[in-house]
Amino acid sequence: MDVLAGLFSTVYIYLDSIAFLLLSALGLIIILGMMGITNMAHGEFMMLGAYTAVIGTQAGLPFPISILLATVVVGLFGMILERLVIRRFYGNLLQSLVATWGISLLISQGMLIALGPSLPSLPMPLGGFKVGGHAYATYRIVLALIGLMVLLLTWWLFNRTKFGMRARATMQNAEIAQALGVDTTKMYLIVFGIGSALAGLAGALYVPTTVIGPFYGTSFLAPAFVTVVVSGGADVITGALLTSIVLGIIEGSFSLTWGTTIGRLALLIATMLIIRVLPTGISGYIAARGERKR
Amino acid sequence: MKSKNIFSTLASRLNGPQSIGHSPVFWTIFIIFIVLLFCFPLLFSEYEVVNLTYFFSNLFLAMGLSLIWGCSDILSFGQMAFFGLGGYAYGIIGINLIGAVSNTNLAFLGGILIPMAFAAILGYFLFYGRVSGVYVTIITLVSTLVFETFMAQTAGPQWAIGKALLGGYNGMTNIPSIQLQIFGLNKIFDGIPLYYFVLILLIAVYFFLRYLVNSKYGNSLVATGSNTLRTEMLGYDIRLIQVIAFAIAGALAGLSGVIYVAWGHYITPSTMGLTTAALPVIWVAVGGRKSILATIISAVVLQYFAQYLSVTGSEYAFVILGALLMFVVMYVPQGVIPPIANYLNKIGKKRSVGEPVCHEEGERT
Amino acid sequence: MRDQNLLHEIQPEDGNEPLLSLRGISKYFGGLKAVDNVSLTIENGELRCLIGPNGAGKSTIFRLITGYYRQDSGDVIYKAKEISRLQPFQRARLGLSIKFQTPMVYQDLTVRHNMWIPMQRIYKREAIATEIDKYLKLLGLLEVGEQFVKNISHGQRQWLEIGMALSVKPDLLLLDEPTAGMSLEETQKTAQIVKDLNRDGMAIIVIDHDMEFVRTLNSKITVLHLGKWFAEGNLAEIESNEEVRSIYLGKK
Question: pTM, whole model, 2 decimals?
Answer without folding.
Answer: 0.86
